[in-house]
Design a protein that fits this description.
By secondary structure, the protein is an alpha+beta fold. The chain contains 15 helices and 12 strands. Among the domains are: about 50 residues; about 50 residues, no CATH class.
Length: about 425
Amino acid sequence: MPDSILTRLRSAWNIFRYGESYFEPYVNYGTGYSIRPDRLRMYLGTERSIISSIYTRIGIDVAAIPINHVRLDQNGRFLEIIQSGLNNCLSLEANIDQTGRAFIQDVVMSMCDEGVVAIVPVDTTLNPTTSSAYDILTMRTAKVVQWFPEHVRVNVYNQATGQKEDLTLSKTMVAILENPLYAVMNEPNSTLKRLIDKLNLLDAIDNQSGSGRLDVIIQLPYVIKSEAKREQAEKRRQELEDQLKDSKYGIAYADGTERITQLNRPVENSLMGQIEFLTSMLYSQLGLTREIFEGTADEKAMLNYYNRTIEPILSTITDGMKRVFLTKTARSQGQSILATRDPFRLVPVEQLAEIADKFTRNEIVTGNEMRGIIGFKPSSDPTADELRNKNLNEAEPKVEDKKVPINNQNGRSKSNNVKE
């Protein structure tokens, strides 16, 4: 029975009507910031170049592939998803500030920018230093600031204080992930670092050319060798600057014997050609193309991108967490961390019907499984969950044979097999 109007009015709530006065007054909320303090801050050289767009593209594509805490059979095949705190962190909520997908994107972008990233379990059910049979409730990314033989010192965000703090933790409780493309992206003399240096140099030249400088040379009608002539030339240069600065339209006059040469024309050098060469080399080493960024790449290009770039990063994340967050006993019981990419994500609609027919006809997927791939809700028909070829008639049940006595000429009975 629905609530009456009086009941709804009594229990109604409006946040602007009650607001903060409903809660405890003068509550200390902690340190406040105008921006998120836990957000990833890239290096200055990376942030000012186009490299940040590459990191963002890779991070979004890796985070789009679901990662789950699963159980496998004895042959390593998927059985079920384990509803644990670790799976909740990977699929729904990693911490109070990040969803599971945002957390994975943060991990990937930090890995690409810094070369190495650490995943720190913040809240656990048991003390990780005394027991390995704990479940993870929240986790955060951390920057490795110092290395020890069996420990690492990490800089991680503490949501209780709102500050980033340094902690020394054992390597057995922290998942340390190294960029599989470290030699290409993070080495001091790698292709990516050279491209960043060239792009920053190009930015500096653009800033200089757009700063309002005139870059003018004045040729005076006398030889400047003595100190008096230098002072006279400096005075003349100052007069021209004052005329241009104080003039409403930026107009100045010069003597008929003076010659003025303007130098602020485009500088001809090989910098742009070097940038284009390094960019194409970086794309080839990362398995990227311009069409991937534009969203116009075909299926073969995307498959090459996933196999050469996305899969190594995904394997690094899953293997690192599996090695640290799952004990030997859990792994022997079939527990694992699995990333599963949807193979139908890049399939056009006109090809999906043919694929559905082949998969159901060859008894690979059921009708409801195919409906879930398309995005439809499951059918209530019981045959929709049967793994069989719908184009063939269902086999009839076998008829049991019965023995019927038959009298022979001698009056003796004998049995004969007949079918009803």
